[in-house]
UniProtKB/TrEMBL annotation:
PANTHER family: DEHYDROGENASES, SHORT CHAIN, SHORT-CHAIN TYPE DEHYDROGENASE_REDUCTASE BLR2146-RELATED. It comes from Glaciibacter psychrotolerans. It comes from the Bacteria. SMART domains: Aldolase_II. One of its GO terms (molecular function) is oxidoreductase activity. This is Rhamnose utilization protein RhaD (Predicted bifunctional aldolase and dehydrogenase)/NAD(P)-dependent dehydrogenase (Short-subunit alcohol dehydrogenase family). Keywords: Oxidoreductase.
Length: 656
């Protein structure tokens, strides 16, 4: 852990800029906070609409990550009102959050941190809170408290574990005057994290780093690098179809499609294959808030039914702790440790599985460090349950989650780096799907930066490259639900009398044979799709209305359309729908260069804009129009449609 404070780049005049700067420093180190963890605050003044100067607490808002937080990510709360709330004897956390929202100077600000009252009562201008791995490794041991007291002495006070919220704020308000001294620079919340205080961001941050360095030294802590996403699936073991079957079973138990991500961490595989993993990995999460992302325990092996039964028993056993009716969460694990697969994470989106993977890789470091001392010990199951079934989380369930159309589903799109293929991938990503994008261009890997994107450079006409790309995608996301064959080539125009043999064969290879091979390879995965498999072939208007000089393109695309029609017949018993979209005159693709467009417009004696709109509706057709049509055909709105042909061409006289 390094102190990365740089006085030359740190803001010095504006309080909000100061807390943004120090928050980003804190958040940029995953050994301190992960994915929304931690919180920060600064005390300052602001002027309200009456012109009155108001003492305020700027505190991190819900939904913001420290690594990327901006000024808008802090909620400005009236300190006088917070002091009044701390004097109240009892509040539910729901009541507390309501009062915190009402104390804000800005109704458009995010919901303030649930630990806002704690920040408000601590006697310092700047307060920083993290869940640092090294400190958690020291705390999560049978003699954790004694170790903390030995390391820090009077510099930090120690607070026994209490669930974050109003009760914790009240407890600290009661204990702080009794336990703190003039030398006190912060506090440790057992099994939770570190708070440091300072009159400046630099002071609070420097203290924070120093305290973590002291914990690292005590624990002999070693942080391991996360696997490189670009290389993590090259040596994966076993049949990828087994991953898809596992995902299908998990989705059935959850009642919705799920993403299943295989980690590429060799160390995670070693951890998962350890003969003692069933003991080492079943004590509980490193900090209680991780339970929201990882559940209390991982699944060891692949017995999903056994895990679901045990999880339901845990819910029934712990539910009486709460004085309210609770809605049971799904009984699917979020972390799986399997000796062959290594670390696998499960979630409703690719982002959720990535977050769970990050958290568990850090958890392994914590467990390792604790075991080198007196052993790893998490909080009792009841305390973890209280966070997992926190009234604020239950309220979210009652309000109902806002899910996107293809949430938890996986699409494979070929030709995804540009044109129609890229547009299809974009629409599917926007509507919640994870997307495996294949393209001959190496730029496909960076076409999108979303967690749900996996770009694989591959020649679809090469069987082994195609097979390998599909397997990479399945290992990243767990299966395939939607397939959009959009890759295609239009070789140089040539009359039949001047037929180019090489161009003809290349057209058949890419436009027809590659499609047939793709269909054969993806069929086993589509059969397992939780909501039924769907295929939409990007065909062409040329099938119905070919033009001179386009024999190789028209014939090869027509053959591919026949493959799709046969698939619709053969796969209907498997619940797989196969439909075709026929675009025409889509000018924002690689097929249409500026020179070609100008040449065609001159040939017809019209402007380029008029040429683009040469259809019955006088519309300029874009790749996005095609992408939206593809997504619609994949939706439940067309659940009773297969073998259909949908033109996206603005209306063509020859076709009609």
């Amino acid at each position: 852990m390094q102190n990365r404070w740089n006085s030359t780049t740190a803001p010095t005049t504006d309080a909000l800029d100061e807390i943004v700067h120090v928050s980003r420093l804190l958040g940029s180190d995953p050994g301190l906070v992960l994915h929304g963890g931690g919180n920060t605050s600064i005390k300052s003044q602001a002027t309200d609409v009456t012109g009155e100067t108001v003492d305020v607490l700027y505190v991190k808002g819900s939904g913001w990550d420290l690594v990327s937080i901006e000024r808008a990510g802090f909620a400005p709360l009236r300190r006088a009102r917070l002091a009044q709330l701390l004097a109240v004897e009892k509040l539910t956390d729901t009541q507390m959050m309501n009062e915190l929202r009402q104390s804000s100077l800005d109704s458009s600000a995010p919901d303030p941190s649930v630990e806002s009252l704690l920040h408000a009562m601590l006697p310092a201008r700047v307060v920083l809170h993290s869940h640092a791995d090294a400190l958690v490794a020291v705390m999560n041991q049978p003699d954790g408290r004694e170790s903390i007291e030995q390391i820090y002495g009077d510099r930090l006070i120690v607070i026994p574990y209490v669930m974050p919220g109003f009760d914790l704020a009240r407890l600290v308000a009661e204990l702080w005057p009794k336990l703190s001294t003039p030398e006190t620079e912060g506090m440790v919340l057992m099994n939770h994290g570190l708070f440091t205080l300072g009159e400046t961001g630099e002071e609070a941050y420097s203290r924070h780093i120093e305290f973590i360095q002291m914990a690292e030294e005590r624990a002999g802590f070693v942080a391991h690098e996360a696997p490189d996403a670009a290389t993590q699936y090259t040596d994966a073991a076993g049949d990828p179809l087994e991953r898809a079957r596992f995902r299908a079973d998990a989705s059935r138990i959850a009642g919705r499609p799920l993403i299943v991500r295989e980690s590429g961490s060799a160390r995670a595989r070693e951890f998962a294959a350890s003969p003692t993993v069933s003991v080492r990995a079943t004590h509980g999460p490193a900090t209680p808030d991780h339970v929201i992302r990882t559940k209390r325990l991982p699944l060891i092996g692949r017995d999903l039914a056994g895990y679901a039964s045990a999880y339901t028993s845990y819910f029934v056993e712990c539910s009486p702790r709460r004085d309210a009716a609770l809605t049971q969460l799904d009984a699917v694990p979020r972390v799986v440790l399997d000796p062959e697969w290594g670390l696998v994470t499960v979630g409703g989106s690719a982002a959720e599985t990535s977050i769970a993977e990050d958290i568990y890789l850090h958890t392994m470091d914590i467990v390792d460090a604790a075991e080198r001392q007196s052993g790893y010990q998490a909080l009792p199951s009841g305390d973890i349950f209280d966070v997992e079934y926190w009234e604020l989380e239950q309220a979210k369930l009652r309000r109902g989650a806002s899910t996107k159309r293809f949430q938890g589903e996986i699409a494979l799109v070929t030709g995804a780096a540009s044109g129609i293929g890229r547009a299809c991938a974009q629409v599917l990503l926007d509507q919640g799907a994870a997307v495996i994008g294949l393209d001959l261009s190496e730029g496909v890997t960076d076409t999108f930066s979303a967690p749900g994107w996996l770009g694989v450079q591959a020649d679809v006409a090469d069987l082994e490259q195609l097979r390998s790309a599909i397997e990479q995608g399945v290992r990243r996301f767990g299966g395939i639900d939607i397939v959009v064959p959009a890759a295609g080539i239009f070789t140089k125009s040539a009359l039949l009398a001047d037929m180019d043999d090489a161009g003809w064969l290349r057209s058949l290879s890419v436009n027809t044979t590659a499609v047939a091979r793709l269909f054969s390879l993806v069929h086993p995965y589509l059969k397992l799709a939780p909501k039924g498999g769907r295929v939409v072939l990007i065909a062409t208007k040329n099938i119905a209305a070919p033009g001179p000089g386009a024999s190789s393109y028209s014939a090869s695309k027509a053959a591919a359309a026949q493959v799709a029609r046969v698939a619709a017949l053969e796969w209907a018993p498997d619940g797989i729908r196969v439909n075709l979209v026929h675009p025409d005159a889509v000018f924002d693709t690689g097929l249409w260069t500026p020179e070609l467009l100008a040449e065609r417009a001159r040939k017809y004696g019209v402007t380029e804009d008029e040429y683009k709109r040469r259809n019955l509706l006088s519309l300029e057709i874009t790749s996005l129009d095609v992408g939206r049509a593809v997504a619609e055909l994949c939706s439940d709105n067309f659940r009773a449609t297969t073998g259909a042909n949908l033109p996206v061409d603005g209306g063509n006289e020859r076709v009609i």
